[in-house]
Write a structure and sequence with these properties.
The chain is an alpha+beta fold. It has a single domain, classed as Lipoprotein like domain (Double Stranded RNA Binding Domain), CATH 3.30.160. The protein has 3 helices and 6 strands; from the N terminus they run αβαβββββα. A 4-stranded mixed β-sheet has the order 1-2-3-6, covered by helices on one side. Strands 4-5 form a two-stranded antiparallel sheet.
Length: 174
């Protein structure tokens, strides 16, 4: 009985240490490595959100920096009707961001498993798309509260798209 408890304790400690639990490591964004350019289709509100995240030097052009061109940002609002009421029960927001990353200073190599040599591939200007969708209840007695909720959800979906953009930009350095 005494040996089984000791053996169980040793096995439990081995199992726990073999899980190799590490602390959560948040991705750090080096704001000085990137600069942004925007097409005419990108609204000013989204440009201001990007400026808040990346600071004042996000538009300074430099050959050492990675160029991120935001070509379009669309935010669409859909009303979802249900039941006998004449009002929308839910509101759905969809955001779509198209951007391209031009990393001309790095040489990216693509290795093939079937050949003995590596082939240089130009991966600059790959157009990427980020989509985000949020739904929320639209049943409010106060129309002002409904408008404020709509503005809040628009801010939330913009923040979500920017977080996905930061994650995508951080994956460049990996």
């Amino acid at each position: 009985m005494r040996y089984t408890k000791g053996l169980l304790l040793i096995l439990l400690s081995i199992v726990i240490t073999s899980c190799n639990l590490n602390e959560y490591k948040k991705l750090q964004l080096d704001k000085n490595k990137y600069y942004f350019s925007f097409d005419q289709e990108v609204p000013n509100s989204f440009q201001l959100k990007i400026k808040e995240v990346f600071g004042d030097n996000f538009e300074k052009v430099d050959n050492e920096k990675i160029h991120i061109n935001v070509s379009s940002f669309d935010l669409n609002k859909y009303d979802v009707y249900s039941g006998t009421s004449l009002r929308a029960m839910e509101i759905e927001l969809k955001a779509k961001l198209n951007f391209s990353i031009d990393d001309s200073k790095s040489t990216k190599m693509d290795h093939s498993m079937h050949s003995n040599h590596s082939m240089h591939m130009n991966h600059s200007n790959n157009i990427k798309t980020i989509n985000s969708m949020k739904r929320f209840s639209a049943i409010e007695l106060n129309p002002l509260a409904e408008n404020q909720m709509s503005k809040f959800m628009e801010d939330e979906i913009m923040n979500d798209v920017i977080e996905q953009l930061i994650l995508e930009v951080n994956l460049i350095d990996l």
